[in-house]
Design a protein that fits this description.
There is one protein chain. Strand 8 and strand 9 form a beta hairpin. By secondary structure, the protein is an alpha+beta fold. Among the domains are: 107 residues, no CATH class; 69 residues, no CATH class; 84 residues. The protein contains 20 helices and 11 strands.
Length: 603
């Protein structure tokens, strides 16, 4: 995120926010600060530098071949630029007037002041007229000493001579005669163009000094920000300035800055820091984006936290499917998700998520061997080769599915601890994360050593030394170096307390994952109970046709109720495993705020 501190007069806030809303990229917070003479002077200076920087951009040499003007300070550059810009403005106005006069003079043909003076010496006073064609009477040419100089589709230009000392009653009003000929004006325009070009070259040299102006503007803005911070409790003020703090994604910097450059504001921008508490905009692929709503239910990550959604998504999908535990219900969820996604309801956005959860339930339900409450492993009609893929039987006297649930729980918690170690290492350094890595090594190392030993892969002597090495290294991290710089005896005490909490906490956390097995088992048993109830009613109903109707009603209503209850449990309990067991062990706090840009709501 990029942070923007935007300063403007309070009276301009509403119109500016309206424009910002149309931009739809900036998450804003409004503030007001005292505006007295000192802050007002700084604000005016910042506006001057901002205005000149914007103006000079139009004169900068794109290839950078124009050397910078040799001026000692930003203030000198500012004064020179203001003077030169004003000069160009005046020259351009004069050039425009000159071209207009040249156009007007062109209709009278070429002449010079000597011609006019010569008529005066001959005793004549020239009179000039500009008439509309429909008002011009050609008979005047015979009655008065006049001559048409030029004409077009709309007008007639003529000159009449009055003899000095005689009255002249020409029936039209005179017009202004140009002071110079068209050529004289054109020559003057060329001179003005040359002066403008020279001024532009000087401005190009001043434009090369823009970094100096921007540095001074930044310095003044920082001084103003510091002034506001040190005087935030002052009540007396002639007026107030509005400070708008905003955040926008860094990849939108070009668009936002282009907008602010054109707006009547002064702004500072820079990469957002953790202490700024910027809003959070998650960046995930299409799959993980479906699960962002679940992350938002707990809380968005802080600016320096990791986004848990890419890991939350696959595990929530797995946990949901295990809690449902029925392939038939997976098919129903797929159909519901498709219909929901095609509808115009407010929950249509959840359609893809429901469909995805349905696909996962269908797959996991197959491996768990349940289809609308029917045990696929025991069903005679189910192909024998496919039964080999169903989790069935016992492991060390326990149901395979229960052992699987506990194994997933252990993996989930270990993954959380690894992520915590990585995040803490990045945020605070390895020394501050030694204790976390000690526990990761102890748990993973213990599991690996135990597995290799039980499988007879690792000899007993090697197992003994592996246990010693892993134990010693883990103990050093957990008991001795858990808090660098502190008294080792205090570290040992803290390590013992942490050990008690970890052992009891992790044991309880792992056991919590049994619910994945229990809910799936309960849903399957309840579905089977409805099947048995339906068949009992079918077999006990002697009336043909009615028995099928009763069977269908019991199955539809029963499985609909079971589906609803299973979905509720499959949603709540995986969230609980994620929000409590996983987030606790991963160190995730989720105290961030969602990025909500000021934008026009789409109809």
């Amino acid at each position: 995120m990029t942070k923007y501190s935007i300063i403007l007069m309070s009276g301009e806030v509403d119109s500016f926010l309206s424009d910002l809303q149309n931009l739809g990229l900036v998450d804003v917070t409004r503030k007001q600060k005292p505006f007295d003479k000192d802050s007002g002077d700084k604000f005016v200076q910042i506006q001057q530098y901002n205005k000149i920087c914007k103006a000079l951009k139009g004169y900068a040499d794109p290839e950078g071949n124009v050397p910078a003007a040799s001026l000692a300070s930003a203030a000198e550059v500012l004064r020179s630029a203001e003077s030169k810009l004003e000069e160009i403005k005046e020259l351009e106005v004069s050039l425009k007037d000159c071209r207009t006069l040249a156009k007007r003079a062109a209709v009278w043909g070429e002449f010079n002041s000597a011609d006019i003076d010569r008529l005066d010496k001959l005793g004549f006073i020239p009179r000039f007229y500009h008439l509309k064609n429909k008002k011009f009477d050609e008979s005047l040419l015979a009655e008065y000493p006049c001559e048409v100089i030029a004409s077009d589709d709309d007008s007639v230009y003529l000159i009449a001579l009055q003899t000095k000392g005689e009255t002249f009653d020409f029936p039209y009003s005179e017009c202004d005669f140009p002071a110079k000929s068209a050529k004289a004006y054109e020559d003057e325009a060329k001179g003005l163009e040359k002066n403008i070009e020279e001024a532009r070259q000087e401005l190009a040299a001043l434009a090369a000094c823009t970094p100096m102006l921007e540095d001074e503007q930044q310095k003044l803005a920082e001084q103003l920000d510091l002034y506001f911070a040190s005087n935030s409790t002052r009540k007396e003020a002639e007026d107030v300035l509005s400070i708008i703090e905003g955040f926008a994604p860094t990849d939108a910097d070009e668009t936002v800055k282009a907008f602010l450059d054109e707006a009547p504001v002064v702004y500072l921008s820079g990469r957002a820091k953790v202490e700024d508490n910027p809003p959070i905009k998650l960046r995930n692929n299409k799959f993980a984006k479906m699960f962002e709503v679940l992350t938002g239910m707990y809380g968005m990550p802080d600016y320096n936290e990791f986004d848990p959604t890419p890991i939350l998504g696959p595990f929530f999908m797995l946990f949901f499917a295990m809690c449902m535990g029925d392939a038939g219900y997976g098919i129903l969820l797929i159909l519901i998700g498709i219909l929901l996604g095609r509808s115009k309801m407010g929950m249509a956005k959840l359609g893809p998520l429901v469909t995805t959860l349905g696909v996962a339930t269908l797959i996991i339900g197959f491996f768990l061997g349940t289809f609308f409450g029917i045990s696929l492993y025991d069903a005679a009609w189910f192909p024998e080769p496919l039964k080999k893929f169903i989790f069935h039987g016992k492991i060390m006297g326990y149901d395979t599915q229960m052992v699987l649930a506990l194994g997933i729980g252990v993996f989930h918690i270990i993954l959380a601890m690894i992520i915590k170690g990585i995040v803490y290492t990045q945020a605070y350094g390895f020394r501050q994360a030694v204790s976390t890595w000690g526990w990761v090594l102890l748990i993973i190392g213990g599991i690996v050593i135990a597995a290799l030993s039980l499988l007879k892969v690792m000899p007993s002597e090697v197992t003994k030394w592996a246990v010693i090495v892993v134990g010693v290294i883990s103990a050093l991290g957990i008991f001795i170096f858990n808090t660098p710089g502190r008294n080792p005896l205090l570290n040992v005490g803290a390590g013992l307390w942490d050990t008690y909490n970890k052992v009891t906490g992790i044991l309880g956390d792992v056991l919590s994952y049994i619910r994945l097995y229990a809910l799936g088992l309960a849903g399957g048993m309840l579905g089977g109970a409805f099947n048995d109830l339906g068949m009992m009613a079918f077999n006990g109903m002697p009336i043909p046709g009615v028995n099928y109707l009763v069977l269908i009603l019991i199955l539809v209503i029963g499985h609909a109720l079971n589906l609803a209850m299973s979905c509720l449990g499959a949603f709540v309990h995986p969230l609980r495993l994620t929000f409590v067991e996983y987030f606790k062990n991963s160190g995730y706090e989720g105290k961030g705020k969602l990025y909500k840009p000021l934008a026009v709501k789409k109809q």
